[in-house]
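[retry 2/3] Transcriptional regulator: previous attempt timed out, resubmitting with same input.
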Amino acid sequence: MPIYINLDLQLVKKKMSLTELSERVDITMSNLSILKQGKAKAVRFSTLEAICRELECQPGDILEYKAE
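[retry 2/3] Transcriptional regulator: success.
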């Protein structure tokens, strides 16, 4: 799939752990881990909004399209 998840990069920029993000956005660690690994089949806009709010970033900072 040509959609890449750059959640790790945003976490490093904000010096935040996945555990801390999980607690702040009220999403389970397993669901965030699935997203971070690029294994998620879909992402709710409400989830994306919560992540962007806590990481102070734009959706395009997390999701990236690369042609194959």
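[retry 2/3] Transcriptional regulator: The mean pLDDT is 94.
[retry 2/3] clearing retry counter.
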